[in-house]
Every structure is written in structure tokens, then in C-alpha cells.
What does this fold into?
Amino acid sequence: LELAKASDALDAEHRLAHLITTQFADAFDSDVQGDDAPPAAWSQWLLGRHAKAVLQGGQVLDWNDALAAGGELPVLSVGPADLAILPYTSGTTGLPKGCMHPHSSIMHNAVASGMWGNGSAENVVLVVVPMFHITGMVSILHTSIRGGATLVIMPRWDRDLAGRLISRWKVTHWTNIPTMVIDLLGSPHFASYDLSSLVYIGGGGAAMPQAVAQRLLEQFGLRYIEGYGLTETAAPSHSNPPDAPKQQCLGIPFMGTDARVIDPDTLQEMPVGEAGEIIMHGPEVFNGYWKRPDATAAAFIEIDGKRFFRSGDLGRVDEDGYFFLTDRLKRMINASGFKVWPAEVEALMYRHPAIQEACVISTPDSYRGESVKAVVVLRSTHKDLVTEQGIVDWCRENMAVYKVPRVVQFVDALPKSGAGKVMWRTLQEAEGT
It folds into this structure.
């Protein structure tokens, strides 16, 4: 309905001519009972039938009707260089932009992801990362279908349903957003779930706190395999080798990828161990932003005759060639001249046993210019055991004084995008900075 409204708002020349619609209930049995049943709170949006959209000057077709119509398949008229999809950036650092991906960039990462993880038809994959998101679409959906794997699909995140599905279907592979793992581990029912079938757990989109990764290793023998990529790189541009991962690490450049760390101002390559902007060149990199030549020009630079994409992320590379993320360029907090990287403070705060989630932002400070603020979700078992000042005091004992949050705010939940990423910008804007 929203897409139809957007089309109707355009002049007649630019409106959609056809719109094919489907509903969640078209894709699965609505009478599932027991542990496989979706939560009761989902019934309205998941099982309800919605009114058919009306498209001014165009035709709306139901998916099932379109399938039943039959007809000859069209002659293949596109190749690897033609536009395949137009996924939009998440908007965590600004307005979303459409990324022009040809068939070749999508196919590269779909094939490479299967090879990288030794995928096979024996894989049982939990699909909870949204499939409208580049990771869910390419690294999970496309890769699994190409490899003949079994897909266990969750239409939205629910930690207890995830726990039941992993146990019931003996899920072997789970790619996720770290916040999902944190949420599952925080469930009061967690002890009743059987995770012994998992042989691979990993993901990206945000840093996996070291304390959480260590718990997975010690309790389940699972090494969390972090990867890194953007909508612009069709999911992974970096990934940890499954047999040699490092914690809180982006991994090494993905197949066929040349990645470097440069000074964001001088564009000179940084020495090993020193932070700079991560750039990448490879077959998975997109062509540019849809109808945004200005943004496209700003996103690419040429080095050694290669077209490199500027990620906007700060990181460093170690002596083994593994990349580590420092933070987003735009997230840096300048506290009395000291540079504070929110992701680093968040990682330290996750060591506190009461903290389930934390998001660090800047808050105005008449003396320091900016100060550090932490928005915190507590574990249900600790809500009456700690105070906001208690968290501040703990931070003073466990990190450099200039990094310590001057303000801690307890909340019931952090705002998240449809892809499960914490929307730090929403919190930052609410702070008035």
C-alpha cells in the first residue's frame, strides 16, 4: 500500500505500470502448532489478509494469480554487467541511498560465501537476518539455495522462537546480528534450549562484544565468525577464516578483494597497526548510487590504477593481515580534545555482568564541548541490583578516564533498524546533537 501511495504521488510519466503483491500467509501453513508456532502477538500482521492495493494508471497483480497465469518464460536478455538489484543503505549515517549492483557482484559473493564456509547440502540454516537486507539476501538466501541447503525461516526476530527452532530442527548454521545472540543469551528460558547442533555461528553489522564471544567459546565450543561488509559491497568484503578467526575482528579481505587502510585526508596508506579509513576494490563492489552522481564521485578514489570504495569506517590491519574496526568516521566524540570511539567504550561496557546492550553517543558539555553518554539495557536478572551511577563508577575502574560515560541512561530497549542494527543516530538526534 505504501509503495502504491508513493507511485501515485509521482507524475503520470514516472508512475509504476505493474505491481505484484504477496502476503506472508501465502508462503506457509497458518495452522502450525507447538514449538514451531509463531508467537500469538504476530497473528495480526503475519496471518491477516490485507486489502489489495490500488495503483493509479497501473495494474496490481496477486503473486499467486501471476504464478497461475502460466505463459512462456522471457528470453534471457541480461548479462553479468546488467543491473540486478537496487538495495538501499540502512540510513544509520544519513538518508538511504540506492546501490546499483550488477549480476556479477551478487553472484560473486553468493558463490564465494559458500566456498568460504565449506557449505554443502547438509547445512540447516536459520534465516532470521531480513532477506530485504543485503546480508540476508546474498550471504544466506542466495548462498543456501545455490548449495541446496535447508532454510528454517523466521519472519522476524523473537529470541525464544529462535531457541526453539534451533533445538527442534537441529540448525547447523546461524548468521546473525550480534544483538540477536546477546538477546538469546539473555532469555530466562535459555537453559532449556539445545544449541549442540550448531557448527557455525557468525555475522556482522555491529561488533560482537568480546565477553559474549568468550561465553560462546567456553560454554558451547563455538567461535563467533565475524565478517564485515556494506550494502555497497553485496555483504562481505572481509571475513574471518572459519578455522582461524580472531575475536572482535573483521577478518581478512574476501575472495578477490584488495583492501587497505588509508589516511582519510592525505589518502596515503597507513602503516600496520595504525588507524585510518578502510577502502576496498573487488568484484563485489557496487557500480554507484542510483541517480546520485555526487555521492558516487565522493565514494570512490583511484589508487594504483584501481577504483577503491571509501567505506567511511575507521580501522587498522595487523601483522597477519586481519582488519579491525575502530568506528564510523562520523561517530567520533571529541571530549576536551580526546578522541573517543563509541564502539570501543561499548565493547568495554559489555564486560559488566548487568549490561545486556549498550549504545554510546555524545552529549553536550559546556566545559568539555562533548561528553560520553551510554544508553543501557540491563539484563532482566539485574534490573534491581544496579544503578546508573553504579555503572558510571564501574566504568571509572575499567577504562581510561576520558572514555568514561559521564551520563548513563537505563532504557527498556534500544532502537533498531529492520536489519537488527542499533540505530545510534536516532539516539544521537534525540540527544539534540
Q: What stands out?
A: The chain has a mean pLDDT of 90. The chain has twelve helices and 22 strands. The two ends are 34 Å apart (CA to CA). The longest helix spans residues 103-116.
